[in-house]
Amino acid sequence: MPRSKYEPCEWIKNTLAGLRPPEKLTVSEWADKYRVLDVKTAAEPGRWNTERTPYLRGIMDSFTDPQIEEIVFVKSTQVGGTECVLNMLGYIIQQDPAPCLVVYPTLELALYASNNRIQPMLDLSSELNVRFNKRESKDLELQFDNLYIVLAGANSPASLASRPIRYLFMDEVDKYPVSAKGEADPQKLAVERTRTFVTSKKIFRTSTPTRKTGPIWQAWLDCDEQREYFVPCPHCGHYQTLRFTQVKFPEDRKDPEDAAARCYYECESCKGRLTDGHKRQMVSAGEWRATRESTGRRMTGFRINALYSPWVRFGDAVREFLTSKDDPMELMNFINSWLGEPWEDTQLKLTSDKVLEQQSEFAEMIVPDGTLLITGGVDVQALGMYWTIRAWGLGVTSWNIAHGFAETWNDVETVMNYQFRDIEGHEYIVNLVAVDSGDQTDEVYEFCAVNGDWAVPVKGSSQPLLGSRYRVSIIDRTASRAHGMRLYLVDGNQYKDMIAARLKRIGKGAWMVYKDCDREYADQICAEERVRLKRGVREIDVWQPKSVHAQNHYLDAEVYCAVAADILNVRYLQPADAEPDEPSESLTRRESWIRPRRQF
Which residues contact 135 (CB under 8 A, 6 or more apart)? Predict the structure, then answer.
């Protein structure tokens, strides 16, 4: 049949189709309309339906929010995080084409994602497949009509090489190496690629968290706005986040399967019982709410755990917890992969209440029974000195008998020469005092030189000390009266480990405080926590303040107090009526002191 003179020819149709603006869709709307899930990798293959995981809608649609430049997604496993990235890539290809970079922890994972996730998605969607130039593509560089998608490994600097990109996706960032074969942080290298697109770039980073110091948790803390998913209770309508602490089960039962079968979720408001049958309705009616807001939303974070997943039952979480709770590594996996929270080693974490639980029966200024040695520690600050005095007994058992703040060196000298008494009236004075020389160094050296029979200078070591808690150096200041004196370099992390561990003991070897001890002291003792940091290619455990303004002066003073006890060989103390050993010739006069300077 002849073509009508009014019917446009084929090339005009194609030209007009190319000029047609893209549909006005959000990422979730695009996925519902065009995305098809592969049978090999999807739990539920077939047409994508956002209503199956409604909590992903807010995350995906934030990608088209012009106010948001960077999205941080802290997640557990089994919540559909990978599908989020794939849907955003599909949206870009069809709706808003521009160069993309997707970074995985390794090149091997990037290759797997290309062959098993991204290319199958392109094959299953006609709208994406028609735009895919398969012949011109490589596994790690996919070519399209108006864009390219580069897949890179964080362990390969070459794959992060300079090329302009507008869209950056970083997957499982907590598994990235600290540096890419000696180069800069892989995340920084990747972000550098977006510099050309000053106002239109989008950065999406996601991961299951590992530790509080890990990249994804630090990114979460830096977000201008933090959002969590709130769901309504079907009984009372109260909106709340799903938390594992609200999953109730008979903890006395040893059988995880039995506990899982009997568990239920308890509404935090009405205490109503919620089951897996309620969860779908709750999650469908849920909404993202900001739990922290600021004036801007440039960097927005989302956080969710496995309890929201349609593929996880409350009982599954209970079973996993009960089978992993006694193994630190398996428990860490549960905290990270199921709860989407960073692991925190609480075995050596100090708390104020724990410090105050360690009160002895002896009042302040009273020397406890069994005391064989008394030491002091002084933390020097610009406006004065925090000091502490501790008695030591067998098995490194110790009691704080006094602490306070001194404004002058004369005050320090007075308190360290105070005559303490035990309940029978026997008098004691401090055997040795360790004084921090990191601040007011010249004054400390002068003080220790004048009081050299009972005071020694100490200083925190900048490096971990292997095989020893402290090492001895010699002061080399010819103009100082302390020239030639010993300076003790201290590994503070080791001493804080010791204090935290002995706080858990009862009886012999315990670390105690006097009766009715004040909370200010307890707060300062627990002002730090042990965290794992990356230094070069290694991970090390260090103690650092829990907050920027945390006061930790008494904790440092107690460290120096323990150093003084070690200098006096506290671990080898014997009762006064024990048969004395011959002192080692290698010990100085001060180091051979075994018994306290007790006066009768």
Answer: none
